[in-house]
């Protein structure tokens, strides 16, 4: 019969680490994790040093380096999409920003048929269970969970200027964007512990890796789910050396994320039968929603030169990096111990939306994700973009070769509402950065620059310059309609036995913020559903509602 495990989890990323921890807590249950990337070795400073995030994104040793198909509304540009190629998945290379999203995101989820138990009251206990908030617990936040969260100190004078400028522009402050009121500006939570990145692997997997019933195999690329009829009975995968392996499973759980999960489903014969047949794949289950409904956040940087020598730009210079790196190695302090995303906020870009549709991240530095600095000695920037784009894309395999990346079509800027919200986003960002609070620091706008003013010029600049915020999701969504893929009450794939999905692909709608926190919550809840545990009791809790407060 070969190897057998009660659960085979395909993907050792954010969700997979959670599931490995929770499912293996029962010593009578055997669990195997198959991760296509390599281990997150403790000595790899580029993973564990927070400020080194610019060195791992786009690096083939850490990043799968996906690229979209030519985007028709962005001049045919191919947009790069980094995903973690290492244990911990994208939580090992991301910006370490922790945003739950808005409570009304989950109310939107729950409004769909069959999704009633995914509302805020039912999900809040799982958010709290996963958290260890260094700032303390309250009605909305948790303490004692695996995921260590610390509040960004935001002591650089530019952070103070940004928070003051937001108020001068008429926007409120809030004490906690993950608590009662998301709307407004505040210091941000981040997944850093004692100056080190606190990934899902470090939070959930490494503390339990010595369990005898838990096996983790890295450099294990899944080729397909093995079926007997409509029951999943195992996984075929390969490791370095080219030899294929097959492992038998009581249940297979797909946690590869919004790109890899639909890819593996399609390779295994689950998806649109006509599309699969064209590639010579025998359809096992007709589910046309597999790979559809792709959603993501697009963002740009509005950058300014700084007239005073207080930004972090000098830390980017090669001559300064050895000293900064040594300081981090010896003390876990200094410029290398921060992710720089220490403050930001959420606002409504117009009066027609019920809750914030724009997110800001502020940095006391002017730099791109790949570490490229601007042509200025000192600078600062905000990352800005719409959170609820009505754009939808797809993930489709083009080959039966599991090593070939699927075709990613995001269709950014393809709807009238998306384009309208982009113009609003840039105008709100400029309004805040033009306030008197920045008067002593503002050396002029570097990007997009004073030549970009009209709506048309703004959209042309966004099409040229925007990058993904690395939040692909929703490609195997929960629901009960004909285009859904996953049963929201069990995480089982519709029409199949022994196969479940628990990762960002199962989200029905993108949340208002970075998606790491909602993915961890989803996996925490999925673990209970998979094991048949009683769900955590719902916790009806008040949260800020702008419309209700306006009366």
Structural account:
With 551 residues, this protein is an alpha+beta fold. The protein has 2 domains: 1-135 and 198-290 and 472-533, FAD/NAD(P)-binding domain (3-Layer(bba) Sandwich), CATH 3.50.50; 153-187 and 298-386 and 413-465, Cholesterol Oxidase, domain 2 (2-Layer Sandwich). Helices cover 24% and strands 21% of the residues. Strands 1, 2, 12, 13, 14, 15 and 26 form a 7-stranded mixed β-sheet that branches. Strands 8, 18, 19, 20, 21, 24 and 25 form a 7-stranded antiparallel β-sheet that branches.
Uncertain ranges: none
Domains (count): 2
Number of strands: 26
Number of helices: 14
Any idea what the CATH superfamily of the largest domain is called?
Answer: FAD/NAD(P)-binding domain
CATH third-tier fold name of the largest domain:
FAD/NAD(P)-binding domain
Mean residue pLDDT: 95
The portion of residues assigned to helices is 10-25%
Radius of gyration: 23 Å
> Which structural class matches the secondary elements?
alpha+beta
Share in β-strands? 15-25%
At the first level of CATH, the class of the largest domain is: Alpha Beta
How far apart the termini lie comes to 66 Å
CATH architecture of the largest domain: 3-Layer(bba) Sandwich
């Amino acid at each position: 019969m070969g190897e057998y495990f009660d659960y085979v989890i395909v993907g050792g990323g954010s969700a997979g680490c959670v599931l490995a921890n929770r499912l293996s807590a029962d010593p009578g249950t055997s669990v195997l994790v198959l991760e296509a990337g390599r281990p997150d070795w403790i000595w790899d400073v580029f993973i564990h040093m927070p400020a080194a995030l610019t060195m791992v994104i786009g690096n083939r040793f850490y990043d799968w380096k996906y690229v979209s198909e030519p985007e028709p509304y962005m001049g045919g540009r191919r947009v790069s999409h980094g995903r973690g190629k290492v244990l911990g998945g994208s939580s090992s290379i991301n910006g370490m920003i922790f945003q739950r999203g808005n409570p009304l995101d989950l109310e939107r989820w729950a409004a769909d048929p069959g999704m009633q138990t995914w509302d805020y009251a039912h999900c809040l206990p799982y958010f709290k269970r996963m958290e260890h908030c260094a700032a303390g617990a309250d009605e909305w936040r948790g303490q004692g969970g695996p995921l260590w969260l610390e509040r960004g100190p935001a002591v650089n004078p530019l952070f103070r200027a940004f928070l003051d400028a937001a108020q001068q522009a008429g926007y409120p402050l809030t004490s906690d964007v993950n608590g009662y009121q998301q709307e407004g500006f505040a210091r941000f939570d981040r997944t850093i512990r004692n100056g080190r990145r606190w990934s899902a692997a470090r939070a959930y997997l490494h503390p339990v890796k010595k369990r005898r019933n838990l096996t983790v195999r890295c450099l294990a690329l899944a080729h397909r789910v093995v079926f007997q009829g409509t029951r999943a009975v195992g996984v075929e995968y390969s490791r370095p050396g080219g030899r294929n392996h097959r492992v038998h499973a009581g249940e297979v759980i797909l946690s590869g994320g919004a790109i890899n999960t639909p890819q593996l489903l399609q390779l295994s014969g689950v998806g649109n039968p006509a599309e699969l047949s064209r590639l010579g794949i025998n359809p096992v289950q007709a589910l046309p929603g597999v790979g559809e409904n792709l959603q993501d956040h697009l963002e740009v940087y509005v950058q300014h030169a700084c007239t005073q020598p207080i930004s972090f730009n000098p830390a980017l210079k090669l001559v300064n990096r050895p000293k900064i790196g040594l300081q981090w190695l010896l003390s876990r302090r200094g410029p290398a111990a921060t992710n720089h995303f220490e403050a930001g906020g959420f606002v409504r870009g117009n009066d027609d939306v019920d809750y914030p549709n724009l997110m800001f991240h502020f940095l006391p530095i002017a730099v791109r994700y790949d570490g490229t600095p601007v042509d200025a000695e000192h600078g600062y920037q905000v990352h800005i973009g719409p959170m609820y784009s009505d754009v939808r894309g797809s993930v489709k395999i083009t080959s039966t070769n599991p090593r070939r990346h699927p075709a990613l079509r995001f269709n950014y800027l393809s709807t009238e509402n998306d384009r309208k919200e982009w113009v609003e986003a840039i105008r709100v960002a400029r309004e805040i950065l033009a306030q008197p609070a920045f008067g002593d620091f503002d050396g002029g706008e570097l990007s997009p620059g004073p030549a970009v003013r009209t709506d048309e010029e703004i959209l042309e600049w966004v099409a040229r310059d925007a990058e993904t915020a690395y939040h692909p999701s929703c490609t195997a969504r929960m629901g009960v309609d004909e285009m859904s893929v996953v049963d929201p009450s069990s995480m089982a794939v519709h029409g199949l036995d022994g196969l479940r999905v628990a990762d960002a692909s199962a989200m029905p709608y993108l949340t208002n913020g970075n998606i790491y926190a909602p993915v961890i919550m989803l996996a925490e809840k999925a673990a209970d559903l998979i094991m048949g545990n009683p769900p955590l009791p719902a916790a009806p809790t008040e949260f800020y509602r702008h419309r209700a407060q306006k009366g």
